[in-house]
Amino acid sequence: MTKIGIIGGSGFYSLIENPELFQAETKYGKPSDDISLGKIGGVDAAFIPRHGTKHDIPPHKVPYRANIAALESLGVKRIIATNAVGSLRADYAPGDFVLFDQFINMTHGRHDTFFDENVVAHVGMAEPYCPELRSIASSRLSEMKLKHHDTGSVIVVNGPRFSSRAESKFFAKQGFDTINMTQYPEAALAREKGMCYLGVGIVTDYDVGLEGDTNVKPVNAEEVNRVFAMSIDKAKALVSSLAIAASSKMTCNCHSALDNAIVTKK
Length: 266
Known about the structure:
Layout: E1 4-8, E2 17-22, E3 35-40, E4 43-49, H1 64-73, E5 78-87, E6 97-99, E7 102-106, H2 131-143, E8 148-149, E9 153-157, H3 165-173, E10 178-180, H4 183-192, E11 196-205, H5 221-245
Parallel strand pairs: 1-4, 1-5, 5-11, 6-8, 7-9, 9-10
Antiparallel strand pairs: 2-3, 3-4, 5-10, 6-11
């Protein structure tokens, strides 16, 4: 049984030892691409490139439900997900790692629940990210001497465009820490399946720039790719270490997310 699921960029393919490609099919369609199955340090793992191998799936069209359902069908209980994020505050600098503890959904039109037919469930989302995985990740990042933030909210926008200055200023004034296009509904769907989910943000930019510093320019795709590429080896080392550590017995309550959530009478 596959224990660990990894969702991220195609650069993470090399994490899996001697991978076998698996073509999954779910009730919600096909996942973003073939799933790489294999081992990481002796631990069974499965990897899905969120945007496809060619990075040709925009954030608002990622098949989030199919990705999570496919991992569940393989026996995955814990998911490690990486994301490029923009910073909305000066102290979250490009190159930093952020362990999300909250999300704010500003997307629209995405299929964001598995409970949209015949069964009504109100799943608690007060703490959407696995505290146990976050604690493990924090320890690993400290051991690796990588600058990181143990908490961080991520506001999720629809994309694929970047923010206007007014939008970014509004988000920052609300106290949000980072901005991204893919953390929702991925994290919420994992919770509906009772799966542990860790969101690791890699800060690539300051969104529309840094107020008061004219040398920091608004984000562009080229800069995001450049900074992310500089961090990819560190991210891969982190994910590899986490996959091994996270394969031990779970002590969190993520698996009980559906307890008392279903209100439809049998």
